[in-house]
Specification:
mainly beta; 7-stranded antiparallel sheet; about 0% helix
Length: about 100
């Protein structure tokens, strides 16, 4: 069962559990030399309204790890974008996953 998106505000920071078609705990890819070989799940999208900076928080890493990291939105891809060891297609920041219904 899919959870409703949560949006929380803490000063200038707006944190959302849904972003461009991915919900909390959905698998995502991170386009980085080491990160491409690791497993990640989406945690939150955060936007600083005063500086207009934004980032995506993920959790994962090597097998058995659950470390939290944050990356720029243009580095986050859907899982279907991986072809072998390469990432193809556009990031979720450019091409969001839209529901079919």
């Amino acid at each position: 069962m899919q959870q409703r998106p949560m949006v929380t505000r803490n000063g200038n920071l707006v944190r959302s559990s849904y972003w461009n078609g991915v919900n909390i705990d959905d698998a995502v890819l991170v386009d980085g030399a080491k990160e491409r070989r690791q497993s990640w799940v989406f945690v939150a999208h955060v936007r600083n309204e005063s500086t207009l900076d934004e980032w995506v928080e993920v959790r994962g890493g090597r097998p058995g790890e659950a470390k939290g990291r944050s990356f720029r939105p243009e580095l986050i891809y859907p899982v279907c974008a991986k072809k072998g060891s390469r990432i193809t297609g556009q990031s979720l920041a450019i091409a969001p996953l839209l529901p079919l219904s």
